[in-house]
Amino acid sequence: MIVQNHIKYFNNIEIGKKKLLVKFGGIMDKKKIYVIIATLIIIIIFSASAICNQCGLPINISFGDEEEDGEEESNSQTESQSQSDSGDSSNESETAEGDEEEPADDPDDAADDPDDAADDPDDDEVEPTTVIFNADPLQTGLITSTGLIELGDVFIGHMGGWDLESRGYISFNISELAGKKIQSANLKINSTDVYNPRDRFGNLIIGTIDFASAELKSIVKDKPASLITSFDWSTTNINYSGEALLNRIKSILIDGRTRLQIRLYYEHPIAYSGDTTHGISFNASNAKLEVIYLD
Fold first, then answer.
1. What is the pLDDT along the chain (295 residues), one digit of tens a residue?
2. Which of 144, 167, 203, 251 is most exposed by smallest CB count within 10 Å?
3. Residues 188 and 288 grouped into a single domain
4. Is the domain of 68 the same as that of 196?
5. With contact defined as beta carbons under 8 Å apart, do 207 and 226 qualify?
C-alpha cells in the first residue's frame, strides 16, 4: 500500500512538469527554459538601469536577506549624515557666537581700581646694601725686615738711613657681613707719598694672611701670604674689585673668621740699599673696603 502511494506521488509530479512545459509551447528541454529565464532577468535589469539613470537613483538589486541588510545600512548612513549636518550647523552657530568680540575694558576703570592693577615687579626685589669699611688702625701699619712695627702709617719699599725692607699691613673688620649674600667687593688705597726710582722692585703684590691676634705683631712678617693680585711697580693708587678679592672674603666668612687682613709688598724688596728711600706710603685712613651685599 505504501509503495503504491509513492508511485502515485511521483506520477503526479511528472504530470505537473509536463503541464508546465506545455504552457511554454510544448515540451521543452530544461536547458532551454533556463536560457529563457536568464534572458528575461537580463532584460529586466537593463530596463531598470535605464530608468534609474534618467531619474538619478542608484541601482540596488539584492535578494532575500541581502536586501534587508542593504536597507538597514542605507538608513544608518542617512541617519549619520543627518547627525553630521546637524552637528555642523551647531558648530557654525557656536563659532559665530564665539567670534563676537566683547567690548574692551576701559583703561580708566583699571587705573581707578588698584586691586585690578598688575603688581609692580620692583616691589618684590630686594635692594642691595652698600657698606664701606675703614682700616683698623690697631692692625694697620708697617713691619720692617728686623721686626720693627709702626701702627697707623704704612710704608712699602726700602727705608733709607736704616737700610731696611718694609712691608705694609691692612686689616678690615667684616663681621657684619656674616650671613649676607655678597655681590661685589672693592679695595681702594690712595698713597700719600711716592719715593722714586722704584722700577727695580718689580710688581706690587697684594695677598691675604691671618694675624690671629688683636694687634699687629712682628711675628706676622714671617707668615706666608695668599696671592690676590699684583700691579706694576709704577702703581701708586690701588683700585681693585676682582673675583679673587670677592672669593677670599666669602671664604673668610665661611671659615668663621671676621677680618680681612692684607699684606702689600714688592716682588724684589731688597733691590735697593743705602740711605736713599724708595717706595710708597699711606695712612690707615687712606685704605677703604667697599662691599655690596643682599640680606
1. 444 544 454 455 444 444 444 444 444 556 667 777 878 888 887 776 666 565 555 545 444 444 444 444 445 454 544 454 444 444 444 444 444 455 455 545 544 454 554 455 555 688 999 999 999 999 999 999 999 999 999 999 999 988 999 999 999 999 999 999 999 999 999 999 999 999 999 999 999 998 877 788 888 888 999 999 999 999 999 999 999 999 999 999 999 999 999 999 999 999 999 999 999 999 999 999 999 999 9
2. 251
3. yes
4. no
5. yes
- What's at 161, amino acid-wise? G
Q: For residues 245 and 154, is the Cβ–Cβ distance under 8 A?
A: no
Q: Are residues 34 and 149 in the same domain?
A: no
Task: State how far the Cα of 171 lies from the Cα of 185, in Å rounded to an integer.
Answer: 15
Residues near 39 by Cβ (< 8 Å), separated by ≥ 6?
Answer: none
In this structure, what CATH number is given to the domain that contains residue 282? Answer: 2.60.120
On the CB side of 175, CA atoms within 13 Å amount to 3
Both 37 and 139 in one domain: the answer is: no
What gap in Å lies between CA 83 and CA 228, rounded to an integer? 82
Q: Which domain holds residue 260?
A: 129-294
Nearest to 185 by CA among 212, 206, 167, 156: 206
The helix/strand/coil state of 190 is: strand
Write down which residue in 53, 68, 86 finishes a domain. Answer: 86
φ, ψ at 164 (rounded to 5°): -125, 150
d(CA 171, CA 153) in angstroms, rounded, equals 13
| Residue 137 to residue 143: CA distance in whole angstroms | 14
66 and 204 belong to one structural domain = no
